[in-house]
Amino acid sequence: MGEFEILGTRLKLLRKRLKVNQIEFSKMIGISSATLSAYETGVKNPSLAVLKNIAETCNVSIDWLCGLSDKESLSNNDSIKTYSDIIKMLVEIEKHIRTNCNILFYDNPDGRHAAGEIIFYDEIMAHFVENWEKMINLHLSNTIDDNLYSLWTNQQLDLYRFDLPNRNSSISNHKIDDDEIDDDDLPF
Fold this sequence. Notes:
Elements: H1 5-17, H2 22-29, H3 33-41, H4 48-58, H5 62-65, H6 83-96, E1 99-108, E2 111-120, H7 123-140, H8 146-159
Antiparallel strand pairs: 1-2
């Protein structure tokens, strides 16, 4: 195998996730099964046009196919499909912001259940989560609809678009004042 080993591995992984054989996958992406086999084994490398077609057809990024990124999906909406995807996100968050995780057990009429709790040692995240909890409750109680919730979420993404602090610091350099989130800014 040559320098395209990761590409071949990712193509094979993608094909298996789609639950198709080489013949079916090669038809999907418009190449011969022999060419696909050569790509998967690293004997041959695809052109940029072929890579682009594979990425668009299978909704994956070219960077992921080539091993330049672990972010597989082109669409943010499709990036969380499995518990593994959530776990990867949690591990990535922990690399940047100090956290603490707890498991809480509680009893209810259906039996014993567990709930996970994540604590952020970051004022900015604590402030966001406090406001987010309020918005989630308003959304779940149908006080606000999906559109208003989405609007609020997008506003928050814009508001919090600044660099993370150093991983070892306990306090972010940027402060969100309660004045920055005015009742007039809320989407309802």
